[in-house]
Write a structure and sequence with these properties.
Blueprint lengths: L1 E5 L4 E6 L6 H14 L7 E4 L8 H10 L2 E4 L9 H13 L9 H16 L13 H6 L4
Parallel strand pairs: 3-4
Antiparallel strand pairs: 1-2
């Protein structure tokens, strides 16, 4: 699973689930995020140092949209803390609670968790106990 998290409201704005980790996995997740949200000037895409984030196709995609790549520092697990928190939550609330039989079942449950529950129903302490959708729709000026 690759996911793109909007740090403003903690919503998962793009994700991809494939049998293997690779460039296509993260490109699909980022492309989904780009389709859902227009790029604003100065957008930074922060990732860990995985090779799938540093490939030529990723570089072209980021360049085409004017997005700056930010890579986490070596050995600093806190550098990508928001994403680590999302995956920890996903594991404790979904992955560790079910036994998946098929890839299709994994895809369906992941969709339900992210698109129905996490973004629209799950309250986040970082958002003053609002859901990502509620927080995004509120005026914060």
């Amino acid at each position: 699973l690759a996911a793109v998290l909007d740090l403003y409201n903690r919503a998962v704005v793009g994700w991809s689930l494939k049998p293997r980790l690779g460039d296509d996995l993260v490109l699909t997740a980022l492309n989904q995020a780009l389709l859902r949200h227009p790029v604003e000037k100065g957008l930074v895409f922060h990732t860990d140092r995985g090779g799938q984030y540093r490939g030529h196709q990723m570089e072209l995609l980021l360049l085409r949209h004017g997005i700056r790549l930010s890579l986490g520092r070596r050995g600093d697990c806190y550098d990508n803390a928001a994403m680590e928190s999302f995956f920890s939550t996903l594991k404790s609330e979904l992955v560790n609670r079910v036994e998946l039989e098929t890839e299709l079942e994994a895809r369906r449950l992941t969709y339900d968790y992210i698109e129905v529950y996490y973004n629209r129903q799950r309250r986040h302490t970082a958002l003053n106990y609002q859901t990502p959708v509620e927080y995004a729709n509120e005026d914060h000026s």
